[in-house]
Amino acid sequence: MTFAPDPAFEAGSLAAADWPLSHVRLQDDGRFPWLILIPRRVALVEIGDLSAADRARLMEEVVAAGALVRALGGATGRSIDKLNTAALGNVTAQLHVHVVGRRRDDGLWPDPVWGRPGARPWPQAERRRLLDLIAGFSPPV
Amino acid sequence: MTFAPDPAFEAGSLAAADWPLSHVRLQDDGRFPWLILIPRRVALVEIGDLSAADRARLMEEVVAAGALVRALGGATGRSIDKLNTAALGNVTAQLHVHVVGRRRDDGLWPDPVWGRPGARPWPQAERRRLLDLIAGFSPPV
To answer: Is the ipTM value over 0.95, yes or no?
Structure first.
């Protein structure tokens, strides 16, 4: 059995990169720079299902994703006030971590972004630019 | 300057343990077994503010907290369907990680628990029992 992201991720996000541990997706919601990290292992649900070595990798990829989300925010002219990082999985069980760039004026602040309506796809040129930035980013090794 | 939890945590949670890295608190909400880990370092806001060694410790304490939350759920007769783990900090900036035990019948499923009304303090006997279980739990070293 080989890794594949749950097809449910295709509805709202775009494949953007493959890092040493994680498949990285850009959430297609122009309100927030928002990455999803999906560890490229099979049959994982909880963080504790990862090996200790993979958990350490995931932590470093989460921190790198935070830096990248800040860069994406800067590239769209909206600097980030706070990172929101979460592994929930109540809707899609496959282990994944959200790293979301939040601003005090983002319309949902201070509430969390999950389970709330209002997603707006990125305009095509901006989406292309963000995907290029993600592709050019050097993940931790 | 020495570590102290932000006084804002006192409104809704109880000091429960001090692990090698994190001060551990029990959220006083009888709807969910819910722990908050606050790394005992000063002036931290984002996960990336921790040293790499402390990040690795935090990851292991988060996984241990997940096992403990499952045990707390079992002790209250309500086994956990899914762990929800998140570092948000939009309301209280001091770095902290929530580890929440969720059930499909918990009333908020599948939505996240943050920023929603309805908290109900634990009944006193149950609160005492959960605090004893947390105090008796061996954290990762």
So the answer is: yes
